[in-house]
Design a protein that fits this description.
Layout lengths: L1 H18 L6 E7 L2 E5 L2 E4 L5 E2 L4 E4 L4 E6 L4 E4 L4 E9 L6 E15 L2 H5 L4 E4 L4 E3 L4 E6 L5
Parallel strand pairs: 9-10
Antiparallel strand pairs: 1-4, 1-6, 2-3, 2-5, 5-8, 6-7, 7-9, 8-9, 9-12, 10-11
């Protein structure tokens, strides 16, 4: 019963975002082991096809890894024991204008930048507990050590 209630609340949060006309930031393309998406205070197991929204916190367990493709074709791959927060994402598919800000709270993240970074690299940023990275290249890996969020 508790799982059903949790799923129902998750769906309500997802439908509310869709009703506001906010397109998803991206989609889970690869999922291994334990991966959850926390949205509006509710955690749901991620699977291939799960939509990712601004504000989502993606967590991988000790056996987990997740690959996410954003709407601008940015590829994010989080390794085991990682926590990634999608803080901002806006993308215009016609002009390729937009912005992206994510925080790697802990763990590892591999990034292959997409169209936003090609057209407006100053608008792509990644934070860790100690650093804010501005993107100037197309591929990089970040590791954030720490157990606290």
């Amino acid at each position: 019963m508790r799982n059903f209630l949790s799923l129902a609340l998750w769906l309500v949060a997802t439908i509310a975002v869709a009703a506001e006309g906010v397109p998803p930031a991206g989609k889970v393309k690869r999922c291994e082991g334990s991966v959850t998406v926390d949205r509006a205070g509710l955690a749901q197991a991620a699977q291939v096809g799960t939509l990712v929204q601004v504000g989502d916190r993606i967590r991988t367990g000790a056996d987990g890894a997740v690959g996410i493709t954003l709407a601008d074709d940015t590829l994010l791959t989080a390794g085991p024991r990682s926590t990634l927060l999608i803080e901002e994402f806006r993308f215009n598919s016609t002009t390729h204008e937009g912005n992206f800000l994510a925080t790697l709270v802990k763990g590892t993240l591999s990034v292959v930048t997409g169209l936003i970074a090609k057209h407006e690299p100053q608008n792509v940023r990644l934070r860790t507990p100690n650093v804010v990275l501005g993107v100037r290249g197309t591929e990089f890996i970040v590791e954030a050590r720490g157990d606290d969020e």
